[in-house]
Design goal:
With 231 residues, the chain is an alpha/beta fold. It is built from eight helices and eight strands; from the N terminus they run E-E-H-H-E-H-H-E-H-E-H-E-H-E-H-E. Helix 2 runs parallel beside helix 4.
Length: 231
């Protein structure tokens, strides 16, 4: 099951200039229709999470980082994030391919519960190993701002639930303005996920923010044009 996975890549664009790609997020898929959640659940039951995620990173490095200059956004599980041997192994894996860890941004989801002190200590170690870091899904746990304000995150990805329909929702507009300006004021680069409607994109463009945006209206997950095969 685990050997049959493949990866698609969804670009993250610069809102001010939609011709500029900030990076590509690697998204795991399975040919017989297993969802990413199903795959990780099975890997977790088998105790195979760290080994499997290193394989995914290795695949992504060969397909993406060796073919495009932009950064790779790579989602990792709580097990891999908190295991301090994982970033060391990841650095060795990348260096064997001649790739610097600074080409990779590791994404940890706000949906997973972390103790703030453990999160900060672990995040600092990933940074010391040379990786960029991102908090994914901000807003799914009530916007855990402690993790944002007390750590050295490079990126924060705002969950699609706060973006969908924003052009017609005054309350959500005020919330997003507050979140984006708070992040920018703290030196964090915001990325708004899940853009699917033209009027939402237009409303965001009118704000003039220098931030990232991602969603089906801009580009669907796909095989990179520079890479047409699967290893």
């Amino acid at each position: 099951m685990f050997g049959n996975f493949y990866l698609l890549y969804q670009p993250i664009f610069c809102l001010r200039d939609l011709s500029r790609v900030v990076g590509y997020e690697a998204l795991i898929r399975h040919p017989v229709g297993w969802s990413p959640g199903d795959l990780f659940r099975e890997a977790r039951l088998r105790g195979a999470i760290p080994f499997w995620e290193l394989r995914i990173l290795e695949r992504a490095a060969g397909e993406a980082l060796s073919h495009v200059p932009e950064m790779l956004f790579f989602n990792i599980s709580p097990e891999a994030f908190l295991d301090l041997t994982f970033p060391v192994k990841a650095v060795h894996l990348l260096e064997k391919k001649g790739i610097a860890p600074a080409r990779v941004c590791v994404e940890v989801s706000e949906q997973n519960l972390y103790k703030p002190e453990d999160f900060e200590k672990t995040l600092d170690f990933w940074i010391a190993c040379g990786f960029f870091t991102a908090l994914d899904d901000l807003g799914t746990k009530g916007a855990n701002l402690d993790l944002v304000l007390k750590t050295k995150l490079d990126y924060v990805k705002v969950n699609r639930a706060l973006i969908s329909g924003i052009a017609r929702n005054k309350h959500m507009q005020g919330l997003i303005v507050g979140i984006v300006e708070m992040l920018l004021g703290n030196g964090v680069f915001p990325i708004l996920e899940g853009l699917e409607k033209e009027d939402d994109l237009k409303w965001l463009q009118e704000k003039g923010w220098d931030i990232g945006v991602q969603g089906f209206i801009l580009a669907c997950p796909a095989v990179l044009p520079e890479y047409s095969g699967i290893e």
